[in-house]
Amino acid sequence: MSPVISHKSGDLVTIDYMELITNIKEMQAFSYSAKRLGKSIAFVPTMGSLHDGHTSLLKKGRELGDMLVMSIFINPVQFGPGEDFTSYPKDIKRDLALADANKVDCIFNPAADEMYPEGFQTFIEIERLSSHLCGLSRPGHFRGVATVVMKLFNIVKPDIVIFGEKDFQQTAIIKRMIIDFNMDIDIVSMPIVREEDGLAMSSRNSYLNKEERMAARCLYTAITRGRDIFNKGVKDAAVILKEVKHIIESEPLSVTEYIKICDTDTLEDLDTIEDRALLALSVKIGKTRLIDNCILQVNQEANKRGF
Fold it and tell me: Which of 66, 126, 169, 173 would be 39's cystine partner, CB 3.0–4.6 Å?
């Protein structure tokens, strides 16, 4: 049963059955109180600008935990120079309404100086997993991701945390961190949620103009082609990658950052797919960086996941 707590701040709408917390100590007190009552906490970390992909995570969290907590925090330390930290999409009113509709018990929405006070100097780095895929072009990104997630875990005290498979590398890094630090947290990953034309849902999709939005369909077309080639029995990564790259490079508005077939555990490049592999790509359409992936797996049902 959600706590019946109303909140109103400035021109924010009043939300019933949900608490909005901006202070770390208050968030910890909320979680300690839930634990004392024997309640499990399911946690969905977000940067806001919620879409149906986030909704799928919230629904799963509602199923798995007695209490559902969501964070909204645009984490400055995971953005590099020239990236979109200041322009990252924000719509707190809509986010609060969606959270309430999905029966979130508590939203943690701290300010940057609450999370990183003056003198902050401790960071988490997951070395090998961060050196592949997005880590190649975004040095320091996953250092920032791991650090903020560790902080959020220590503040929210979750039993279960839910991530989306679109950010496959991020989820792999958090899984590794949980294992390496012997954290008593279960991690659940949820399939990619897509638009009707296949584009993976992302808060950054809002950056795309009409022409760019049409061009962005090439990502889904490309990974679908890669999956189809694999399903026909091709195990040579170079053959699959050639076809995928051709589709991406045939789109005039696209600029390829990476297209890789790699091991699902280590993220190291593969030459041959024995049983299971990750096909992952990062492509810029205009100024917007988009990522997508799919699992190539001999088991056909598993291979359809996220499509």
Answer: 66
pTM of the model: 0.92
The pLDDT of residue 9:
40
228 — pLDDT class (breaks 50, 70, 90)? very high
pLDDT at residue 6 greater than cutoff 70:
no
Homologous superfamily (CATH) for 19-190: HUPs (3.40.50.620)
Domain ranges within the chain, ordered by starting residue: 19-190, 203-303
Catalytic residues: 54
SS (H, E, C) the chain: CCCCCCECCCCCCCECCCEEECCHHHHHHHHHHHHHCCCCEEEEEECCCCCHHHHHHHHHHHHHCCEEEEEECCCHHHCCCCCCCCCCCCCHHHHHHHHHHCCCCEEECCCHHHHCCCCCCCCCCCCCHHHCCHHHHCCCHHHHHHHHHHHHHHHHCCCEEEEEHHHHHHHHHHHHHHHHCCCCCEEEEECCCECCCCCECCHHHHHCCHHHHHHCHHHHHHHHHHHHHHHCCCCEHHHHHHHHHHHHHCCCCEEEEEEEEECCCCCCECCECCCEEEEEEEEEECCEEEEEEEEEECCHHHHCCCC
pLDDT given at position 12:
40
pLDDT of residue 298: 86
